[in-house]
Amino acid sequence: MPAIVLIGAQWGDEGKGKATDLLGSRVDYVVKFNGGNNAGHTVVVGDEKYALHLLPSGILSPGVTPVIANGVVVDVEVLFEELDALSERGVDVSRLKVSLNAHVITAYHRTLDKVTERFLGKRQIGTTGRGIGPAYADKINRVGIRVQDLFDENILRQKVEGALDQKNHMLVKVYNRRAIEVEEIVTELLSYAERLRPMVTDTALLLHQALNDGKTVLFEGGQATMLDVDHGTYPFVTSSNATSGGAVTGSGIAPNRIDRVIGVVKAYTTRVGSGPFPTELSDESGEYLRVNGFEFGTTTGRPRRCGWYDAPIARYTARINGVTDFVLTKLDVLTGLAEIPVCVAYSVDGVRVDEVPVSQSDFHHATPIYENFPGWTEDITGVRTFEELPQAAQNYVLALESMSGSRVSAIGVGPDREAIVVRHDLID
Ligand code: GDP
Ligand code: IMO
Ligand code: MG
To answer: What does the alpha-carbon distance between residue 195 and residue 83 come to, in Å, rounded to a whole number?
Structure first.
């Protein structure tokens, strides 16, 4: 039985939540392996709309065991709030498992996220302000607090002291803020321990055993390839590995156990926050995509930057992640456009470039070379087979498929759970 990784192919918000939900009823475990509550996944089930941040979207499927693995940074207060909100709406959250090795986001991480952004001024990244970057920085600096530390008061106090030692100097002397009290943090973190205890475990071992027992495990990436700290548009990225390699290090499951890598890609492109975006539109076409695609952030409510589909990015994503199948989402949003431009390559200082340039400056200078495809006017939200799509929509999908380095196995035609055209089974 397979281990499947599902990742974002662009700059996030491709519809990973909906794609996970699509597979949900057929998988046994859904694992979040990177990021934290910077993610925002909207899943529409009938008349109900769910916005998930820290929890993997698989939590909405009855019978699935959701797992927050070691690669995640956990804001425990947010975790409890999300669990409570879902319980109140009748979602069974009792199976959730949380890794003892996952790192914890504390009040000082949130504070530092905000003050460092403010100090960057024009160079700011436009983070979600949730403390993600500072929590991962502490992990790499070996001064992080892990979930397991919440169960040993002495160790916890020592670690918080160690973490705050330098930070308080910075907060007071550089950022002109008040120092943070060790006891304030320790008391807060200890107060979470009792409720957290039944959820915590060695999730790497749990998942290893699940795969040995023939269970199906879906690894759900937060953020996306172009926001990956190694392979994205650094420094305008998040602080984790959002690519398929991150599913391995972020969960403790070996690479040779992974059978399938699903890339979720929008039929156009969006981005939230700063950084290069070659196909970005600042005219009425961009507004058309924003309004019709309802492109406003699930986490921060910020309007998303919108642009045309970028085939070199999809090819890059296919290569970096080993994408076996693409799920192409939001095709319905393009309905009504007379012509749909697709970026097929870039021009960098007058030279045609077919691949995403490795040099940051080149990517900043890259301007898209477009090919135009005829649009369609028919409403496609009720379509459930590829053949029922208008010929122009079929041609658009086939063109993207041929340019993007992997087959398009499913196509989103609306926000609803059922609004999807499946061409190839994503599990068998
Ligand atoms: P994620 O972060 O990748 O899970 O994506 P988000 O949930 O942040 O953003 C995707 C948005 O598009 C959500 O509001 C979804 O309900 C919506 N969505 C997903 N697939 C489709 C689709 O095929 N068509 C339309 N119109 N909306 C979709
Ligand atoms: P999902 O999972 C889109 C962006 C932020 C910012 C940068 C760094 O919903 O696709 P961070 O708070 O992570 O340090 O911010 O990354 N960002 C996202 N953009 N979708 C997301 O998640 C994102 N998570 C972070 O806007 O530019
Ligand atoms: Mg999102």
So the answer is: 11
333 touches ligand 1 (CB under 6 Å): yes
Instruction: Collapse the DSSP code of 407 into the 3-class scheme (helix H, G, I; strand E, B; otherwise coil) and give the result.
Output: strand
For the domain spanning 103-198, the CATH number is 1.10.300.10
What residues does each domain of the chain span?
A: 3-91+203-422, 103-198
CA distance 201 to 131: 24
Mutate to test the pocket of ligand 2, among 238, 243, 295 (most ligand atoms within 8 A of CB): 238
300 is annotated as contributing to ligand binding: yes
At 341, the pLDDT band (50, 70, 90 cuts) reads: very high
Residues 397-420, mean pLDDT to the nearest whole number: 96
Decide: 13 in ligand 2 pocket, CB within 6 A.
Answer: yes
Domain spanning 3-91+203-422, CATH architecture = Alpha-Beta Complex (3.90)
Is 39 annotated in a binding site? The answer is yes
Based on the number of CB atoms within 10 Å of its own CB, is 130 exposed (0-12), middle (13-18) or buried (19 or more)?
Answer: buried
Q: What is the pLDDT of residue 1?
A: 63
Ligand 1 pocket residue status of 8, Cβ below 6 Å: yes
Burial class of residue 259 in the structure, from the number of CB atoms within 10 Å of its CB (0-12 exposed, 13-18 middle, 19+ buried): middle
